Amino acid sequence: MNLFQRINAVRSKIAYVQKDKSVSTGQGNYKAVTHDQVTALVRQHMIDAGIVCFPVLVESQSIPKEEGAKQFRYEATYDFTFVNMEVPEDRLTIRIQAHAMDNADKAPGKALSYAKKYAVLKLFEIETGEDEESRYKEAEEFDLEGWSEKITAAGSKEVIEYLYFEAKKDAVRLNDAPALKALGAHVKTVLAKLEQPQ
User: Fold this and answer.
1) Beta-sheet pairing, 16-18 with 127-129
2) Alpha-carbon span 70 to 52, nearest angstrom
3) HSE-CB of 117 using CA atoms within 13 angstroms
4) So where are the chain's domains?
5) Alpha carbon 41 to chain centroid distance?
6) Is 90 within 8 Å of 84 (Cβ atoms)?
7) Fewest beta carbons within 10 Å, which of 13, 23, 94, 116?
8) For 35-71, how does the pLDDT look when each residue is reduced to its tens digit (9 = 90+)?
9) What is the pTM of this model?
10) What is the DSSP code (8-state) at residue 140?
11) Is 82 left (phi over 0), alpha (psi -120 to 50) or beta?
């Protein structure tokens, strides 16, 4: 196989990696995919496909700390070359820019890890997200209004209790305790009206 066929073989094995690391920005948090996570995901597939990758530093600079700042900024540009190990001249190079902040000597390593992670994610077209199902559909929500209408229209205590039982399963599945509490209050109101003499 040529290099592009090998890359395609790896793509066929990996579709998704979940963001699992919480990163603090000082003003909030966000989820991220780590370098080690991506490496663990693709390493064996690259070995099986006979693809080797190596980085080359193109240029870099360290920007001194601003007055009062705790960290300095390191900026770098890397070429990542992906090679067909059976035909080494069959290769593809991706250029990635990266930067990192640090207060000691770890910034260059951080920038290299960041650049390699994105070179791999983009070359092999690996999706990232909060969770796997979010790739396919919007988060499902408990239909409080729909269940309330059904319960209001029910003509007997037995039907109301059955509908509430089914709605409760739905709410528990979706982990929506506030909606279940609101529906429970609605059920009590409907039952109270049903029990009033006509």
Assistant:
1) parallel
2) 38
3) 20
4) 3-132, 144-195
5) 14
6) yes
7) 23
8) 888 998 999 999 999 999 999 999 999 988 777 778 8
9) 0.60
10) P
11) beta
C-alpha dihedral sign at 97, 101, 107, 110: negative
Q: Rounded to 10 degrees, what is the CA torsion of 111, 94, 35, 66?
A: 20
Distance from the first to the final alpha carbon of the chain? 81
Q: Of 66-70, 86-90, 102-106, 173-177, which has the strongest mean pLDDT?
A: 86-90
Q: Which of 2-6, 23-27, 109-113, 142-146 shows the lowest mean pLDDT across its residues?
A: 23-27
The answer to whether residues 78 and 98 touch, using CB atoms and an 8 Å cutoff, is yes
Q: Is 57 helix (H, G, I), strand (E, B) or coil?
A: strand
Ranking 75-79, 150-154, 186-190 by mean pLDDT, the lowest is 150-154
Place of tokens 């109270």: 192
Residue found under tokens 């528990």: 172
Q: Which CATH number is correct for 3-132, 3.40.50.720, 1.10.8.60, 3.40.50.2300, 3.30.390.80?
A: 3.30.390.80
Structure tokens, 108? 């260059």
**What pLDDT was estimated at residue 109?**
93
Per the listing, tokens 């929506």 go with 176
